[in-house]
Amino acid sequence: MNNSGAKFTLLSLAAMLTLTLQGCAILASRPVGNAAVPEPTRSVELERYLGRWFEIYRYEAPFQEDCDAVTADYALNENGTINVLNSCRKGGASGPLTTVNGTAKVVDSITNAKLRVTFFWPFYGDYWVIDHDPEYQWSIVGEPSGTYLWVLSREATPDQASRNELRQRVEELGYDWGLIRETRHPQ
What we know:
Blueprint: H1 3-28, H2 46-49, E1 51-59, E2 67-76, E3 82-90, E4 97-106, E5 114-120, E6 123-132, E7 138-142, E8 149-153, H3 160-172, E9 180-182
Antiparallel strand pairs: 1-2, 1-8, 1-9, 2-3, 3-4, 4-5, 5-6, 6-7, 7-8
């Protein structure tokens, strides 16, 4: 390798290290909403989990800032991974649409409840289906650090009784409701 190639490789490594350290600093500054994240409570049948989910509640995350009308669409890829299409409307439930496409892979094949998701390879994040309705009408998703939480439903606007049940379940799982942000959807 010539001198300019070595310099380019070192600069590339330095840039990657800088991005990694910046990512760690962002994560470290996030509030922890659950210091003892529970293991997923039940197995996930992937075929039943696929399809569209509406975000009802979440812990605010920098990558979702100012997002409403959030949806996640999951579809099985031919190679066994899961295609993830996340959508949101910036600035309100009727704001401009933004989307990001990613890939998830199951990392716990016994329960299918623990996955790793990437929207920007080679960086992966944990996606744990902490709990879900036996009929797959709602899902509570977290990750081991306790800084992220998403509460999903098959309906964009579940009734108040369903919302109350979801809040109770989130709190039973040890999450701090004070950090919750409710996601608005078009009426």
